[in-house]
Amino acid sequence: MSSELYETQLGDTWDIVAKLIYGSEIYADYLMQSNPKHIATAIFSAGTILYTPALPDEEIEGLPEWRE
Predict the structure, then answer these.
(1) Domain span including residue 32
(2) Choosing a second label site near 9 at 20 to 30 A (CA), which of 17, 31, 35, 56?
(3) How many CA atoms lie within 13 Å of 56's alpha carbon, on the beta-carbon side?
């Protein structure tokens, strides 16, 4: 599997995956934007493949919109 892909585990959420991949839940919004096909999913089943691109060069600050 490519380093730009993540296979979800049962019970994963956007913020859990963001913490695992990027080191902080703050990147959950970026992860969601990168995976519009799964945007309606709150809790993942096992085996969903998410695209996890490298973070942009600019800093993402503050909480994701959905957590404000």
Answers:
(1) 5-54
(2) 56
(3) 10
